[in-house]
From TrEMBL, chains A, B, C, D, E, F, G, H:
Entries under Gene3D superfamilies matching the protein: 3.40.50.1970
GO BP terms in the entry: 'de novo' IMP biosynthetic process
Naturally occurring in which organism (per UniProt): Paenibacillus catalpae
Record-level Gene Ontology MF annotations: hydrolase activity
Lineage: Bacteria, Bacillati, Bacillota, Bacilli, Bacillales
Protein name per UniProt: PurE domain-containing protein
SMART domains registered for this protein in UniProt: AIRC
Amino acid sequence: MLEDVLRQVQDGRLSVEDAAKQLATFENLGFAKVDHHRKKRQGFPEIVYGEGKSADQIIGIAKALQAQNHEVLITRISQEKAEQLQNVCPDYRYDPVARLLFWKHADHRESRLKGYIAVVAAGTSDLAVAEEAAVTAEVLGSHVRRFYDVGVAGIHRLLHHAEEIQQAAVSVVVAGMEGALPSVVGGLVAHPVIAVPTSVGYGASFNGLSALLTMLNSCASGISVVNIDNGFGGGYNAALIHQLINKGAAES
Amino acid sequence: MLEDVLRQVQDGRLSVEDAAKQLATFENLGFAKVDHHRKKRQGFPEIVYGEGKSADQIIGIAKALQAQNHEVLITRISQEKAEQLQNVCPDYRYDPVARLLFWKHADHRESRLKGYIAVVAAGTSDLAVAEEAAVTAEVLGSHVRRFYDVGVAGIHRLLHHAEEIQQAAVSVVVAGMEGALPSVVGGLVAHPVIAVPTSVGYGASFNGLSALLTMLNSCASGISVVNIDNGFGGGYNAALIHQLINKGAAES
Amino acid sequence: MLEDVLRQVQDGRLSVEDAAKQLATFENLGFAKVDHHRKKRQGFPEIVYGEGKSADQIIGIAKALQAQNHEVLITRISQEKAEQLQNVCPDYRYDPVARLLFWKHADHRESRLKGYIAVVAAGTSDLAVAEEAAVTAEVLGSHVRRFYDVGVAGIHRLLHHAEEIQQAAVSVVVAGMEGALPSVVGGLVAHPVIAVPTSVGYGASFNGLSALLTMLNSCASGISVVNIDNGFGGGYNAALIHQLINKGAAES
Amino acid sequence: MLEDVLRQVQDGRLSVEDAAKQLATFENLGFAKVDHHRKKRQGFPEIVYGEGKSADQIIGIAKALQAQNHEVLITRISQEKAEQLQNVCPDYRYDPVARLLFWKHADHRESRLKGYIAVVAAGTSDLAVAEEAAVTAEVLGSHVRRFYDVGVAGIHRLLHHAEEIQQAAVSVVVAGMEGALPSVVGGLVAHPVIAVPTSVGYGASFNGLSALLTMLNSCASGISVVNIDNGFGGGYNAALIHQLINKGAAES
Amino acid sequence: MLEDVLRQVQDGRLSVEDAAKQLATFENLGFAKVDHHRKKRQGFPEIVYGEGKSADQIIGIAKALQAQNHEVLITRISQEKAEQLQNVCPDYRYDPVARLLFWKHADHRESRLKGYIAVVAAGTSDLAVAEEAAVTAEVLGSHVRRFYDVGVAGIHRLLHHAEEIQQAAVSVVVAGMEGALPSVVGGLVAHPVIAVPTSVGYGASFNGLSALLTMLNSCASGISVVNIDNGFGGGYNAALIHQLINKGAAES
Amino acid sequence: MLEDVLRQVQDGRLSVEDAAKQLATFENLGFAKVDHHRKKRQGFPEIVYGEGKSADQIIGIAKALQAQNHEVLITRISQEKAEQLQNVCPDYRYDPVARLLFWKHADHRESRLKGYIAVVAAGTSDLAVAEEAAVTAEVLGSHVRRFYDVGVAGIHRLLHHAEEIQQAAVSVVVAGMEGALPSVVGGLVAHPVIAVPTSVGYGASFNGLSALLTMLNSCASGISVVNIDNGFGGGYNAALIHQLINKGAAES
Amino acid sequence: MLEDVLRQVQDGRLSVEDAAKQLATFENLGFAKVDHHRKKRQGFPEIVYGEGKSADQIIGIAKALQAQNHEVLITRISQEKAEQLQNVCPDYRYDPVARLLFWKHADHRESRLKGYIAVVAAGTSDLAVAEEAAVTAEVLGSHVRRFYDVGVAGIHRLLHHAEEIQQAAVSVVVAGMEGALPSVVGGLVAHPVIAVPTSVGYGASFNGLSALLTMLNSCASGISVVNIDNGFGGGYNAALIHQLINKGAAES
Amino acid sequence: MLEDVLRQVQDGRLSVEDAAKQLATFENLGFAKVDHHRKKRQGFPEIVYGEGKSADQIIGIAKALQAQNHEVLITRISQEKAEQLQNVCPDYRYDPVARLLFWKHADHRESRLKGYIAVVAAGTSDLAVAEEAAVTAEVLGSHVRRFYDVGVAGIHRLLHHAEEIQQAAVSVVVAGMEGALPSVVGGLVAHPVIAVPTSVGYGASFNGLSALLTMLNSCASGISVVNIDNGFGGGYNAALIHQLINKGAAES
């Protein structure tokens, strides 16, 4: 692309000033365009982190994204602020457990990907983070199956679902307190496990530090970890891998 | 016992001075005697922490204990120092993995307790700590069954032994890295689990802190925790409970 | 049990499909049944962690347990939520200090176990955690004696009760701030000590971390530790040991 | 498979005892067999963590794996111990930088996967960890391109390779000190980034804690993290994803 | 005293039962009486930690102390709770900055000790903790001189008062943020310095941890440290030393 | 100056008492005068930390400063308290984002310094801290250019402004979460970078600790760090350097 | 003293230049002279921290101190380096346990102070730190009584010596592991307790952090804390208080 | 510069291929050239971090720098490795205390900058870090004055040099243990203070963490902090500011 611009300058089809402008925003760095390509190819929207942004700010960003028919996904947004947005954008859906607000073009509401993501959660208290992961992945185009309340202290509950989890394309495993669940799942499956520690627990759980360290130190292979309570990160990573697997299939 | 002494003083059978001496070492506080009773009743020796003590110091303490036919158990003692002691006390046995040196009167070498303690360890690297727990419990009079290399990343290895672990009187569960094993064992058994974190691991295991926090935050009931690498503490607690269960049986 | 099922298949008494179903939920894992056995043998109910569950959810679980005549114990439940439950289940008792809600079948309200558990607490500020331990143990069938406000800074208060604590089957020792009490108790008694650090304190107590580390590093033997403020864990462990000692007595 | 066994029992082709044995190691738990399938399908060997294992132990495990024509990969193994193994197994290769010892069947030495993994490292001091990641991925069947010494303090070095990194299937990004590289790479690419913090640094890097926290808190999406210095984990995760993408392609 | 009791028993002047009772509360342990002696000799009251105690509980304790003409000092008590007490005990004084409530017998309101305690504070934000120290020392019978807002960032403010601080019997030095003041004072004076870190500060002050570590690591001799925000501890230690110095003078 | 005073004493022009007084407040230490010189030479006012001070206290200090025609700058002051001051001092300006209240003499409102300070911020959530830095520098006499929302996860946004940042006299770089921005800026510029970590983030950001460690460990040269959220510190350091550079120019 | 110099200038007895010189080293700051006074009055030498200093450097400082007949005390000095010094200064004594090298003028070798310091240590492993405290206090002129191996896990050992500890002028209490001993001693005595945490312990003792936190959080009054393993600090503080008490006695 | 290239393409003076090559290394990113300009303008060499690099690697880099007549500065290099380099490059000088190896062109050995940098260090143990700062600044072209052993525990030592420190262009203040020195210096001077914490200390200094936190929390303005033991960083920042001040002077 750089050479194209240069050739147009050489041929007089492009003035020096216009070429400089183009190269400054794109050829010099080339990221904005790639960004556009990425969205077209993968259907991945720009994600908006809602915390600390005003409703007005969010509406502005959301409309810009929607104008390009991209999905809109706003994370960590309170019910109250979401309702302000829904007054303006009535076709936005809000999930109060996952605290996500999102919009998808009618054409993209059905997942076109083969296979599914398993979202596995240890306890009912981890539900909000697990749902943030699950709904994020769904908005990004994946089909999700949920396996909740299957913590390691009653290992049979997990094993009961072992086969169904094993057949997923990728797993997101959410756990607080001792955070041992990803290790057990990681030992059962042959696909990547995205581990999400939660701040659920008390005393020496130190707001999720305990679960975080457990997951980082897992002796099972194929596990990687995102930040404490970062359900969005878990869902995003899983959807990204899920999409690449499908893309691999589509390209062959 | 206080009243006995007073009565003897009243009756003139005991001088004021002798009574004062007795009460000073025993009636005032009453612990030395209880200590003796405890050993007689339970066969529990004074344990010697070997680290930082010279061979001569250890020999002195050991001989005093042995003189009363008590078992002798010296923990955290190097092979080299142990051999110095064995030159003087040739009937002492040394376990180089557990780094324990001990002696038992010939009459007490067979466990007279019903049932057994399960010592469960996650990885082969946790062996030294697990053996410190197992041999400690054996020296203190318990029978021990070992279940090693049954970490949660291959949960079937543990489940294969589930029944035998369930039938133990008490379990000591040793694990490093993510330290998740006690949670899983705790969910399988109906007896107390003494969890021993080990400093095995690297990076964010922080010398056992990760495993320690995991175990303290376990969502399984019936688990309590001892210090990092404290295999002795695990074995001692288990043997204490095991003995009390048997004593309960014997007294009824 | 596995062989029974196989034999029935061999004999044609059981179809392949039914056998597969049975083995999938029970023979493969075998835990649900053990769970039932455990409750029958030991009278230990499933414990419900109340925090983060709605009153409706708790009512559902409680009724299921009660239907089997199991005791019901709900921990960390606020007065307000407890009263909602008591409207539906008027025979449930609530302890506002321990924040426990529980129900016991009329036949099981008296402890049938020999001996008692000592619940020892350092300061009046540790009361809530100590009561969580004590009431938990009582609901689980143990008799409890309380020794409160006997912190180490006035050691004579503790020593005054030394003998009565020594005669307990097991001790739960609760302390915040410097958390030194379990070490002193552990040096006085010949039974297991479950140490419970509390988040009581200020400044460098770091929400109970100070007391937790103290207890883990205790130089007294026979001490194991549960999570910060985990009075329930202390009471549960103690009741478990107490019951096993009695069971030992009953079986002989 | 469970139903197969049952049918053989029903037909009398299999005795109850033999069926019980099979189900004990497989049907009860079902993991060993799945393990075998996994290797066949994916070419993923059992990985041997070399630290703390004797040369003899490693030789035993290695021969068992090799007997099934599986690749053999031993991590964290010193040159000295590796040479002991090479005396017995002269066709094993040792990589002294990555501290990996491995063997591949002659038929599998060429990667059959489309695309490549980008291993990106910040500084020359991160080399050992980066090579552990790269060689691990190569042994597991991926093609790898290395981009070393492209730390963020000279951002042009990274940008020079931006396009080639963007075209990879997945990236492993290795960095110590401030650990900022994964954030920058994560913002440039549309594929998963496995971030590996290293313990390189001094002072307040606290043995990799600084880099670890940086990576967990990355504001770029699509990043997940493994343990400090865990190059193997980075390579394994990347190879796993790379293989699944290819498998997706092959299956369609 | 033990021998006295024994002799009375021997002489028949004291019954066994009465002797046992006396020895149980005093001879066995001997602390209660010593406690009484301590108060008589030194005028040091039992201190009541007000936080977490109800107004009624505090009133009960306060009246018991007052009944013996001891000073009453209640720490960490809110204005609201203090006013409840003042309704019952109108001659109690409350200091809202130091959050102390206290009563002294009219005869003891003037300090009879020679010399004074210097309470030195770095910033105006440390005022509450400094006042807790100062008023505590005053209630315990010391004269106090206050040197506030003399932090090290304007060292001349401190040096201006150097001589007056040097002539104190003992110093309490209160500082938050970087907590450097005790080191500078410790280098100027020839008497003990009690350092009190405060939780004043933000960011990396970590609620006083920064100041605490600074003080513990002081390279000046003669400094010892109490807990974060523990103004009471600072004042108590200083008053104790001040009194002993005077007592030394009085006894000679 | 010391010799001047001595000479006046020698000549009888100054009494011993008056000389002693002068030397006590100035010659002995000499800082107050220097302080005045500093302000005259550099136009740097005494800065008032507003948190924890009453409106009345602040008004007193502000008036004293204003009386000498110094600028007045009060940091960390709430809107409510600022309005109380503005009632008394109506020509004071309040910046609600930066939470700064300030006054400048009409003659000093225009910056007379050559060049500008670049204030660079990673995300919109870092705005308050960045503005505290920017407005502080402006009040202290610098011209400031702001570059906001240029975090490393979209590196092209930063590079777009690279040249303008490079031409600044000094940069203040503000970032939370992973805090990587100063490293990238530090690698682009040839002037000092003052890095300001913010407490923006969640989970393992630990209230800014993550960003702080990142910045301290930066492998780019020319970076130094101030406390978490200490925008004032960043702005002050930058203004100080900016002024010295100009002073260098003016003096030559 | 300032006025004296001024008067001499006024009277022409002192030139301006000489007066300026005197005031520069003393009147300006006034500390050197006070330093000299302090030593004369209290017999307190300058203490030399030996670690990181060469033998030659230490010899230089030691000779300067000795030249004024001050005691010489060098801390943290290895046997090897001490022997180098003893070659030059044969009348220096070395204590290999306390790692102290010292010299006292023959006239000052006997303590002239009334009363004694109690140095109390929990375990035999704390011996080195306790001896550093004890010998420091002895060199500084105090008489010391040692109470070793009286840890709280066998509380009767401590209580046996309670009276003798109570009669000390001040106590230094040394403990590692859980560090609970100062709390118990602090509750028994009516004099200041200097608590010295040691790095003795393993696992979660974190090199003395556990003991340090315990001591800072002690609920006994009259306790202050010095740095981990800082036996010198403990001994110095105690000797300082001891001397002031005696000085109080001497002055009255 | 971008437009220059474009114009040359437009005029046919530059081929598209050559222009593309130029823009790829420079116009696209523009950093390499800026780098060169930076060195020419400021005389600042590329700095080589010696730790973890082989002697051969360092020789290669050093020769490349020297070829352009740039100064060569290699940090953290051991005497042994330095001697290997000196065999090849005999005109390199090694400073064994600062552990720096460097070479300067004969024409640049004298500082041409006006003014000096003050390097201030608290204790003799901080010498190595202070020298790393001082020699770094000297190699980079600054004149340096050293003020060592002026820690806050003897504040008069620092004040004795106050004027000379105040007249410096910028200060580097190095301190371990409690790290209080930068706060005191920062309150005395009207120029930037670069604070360098050192890992000197023991116990709760936690390898420099204590000093680091102290410096970050300094209540003096104009202080910024570099990593623990990062003497190089301190010297580099100071030299950078010093040079800009001179450049400001030169340009006007």
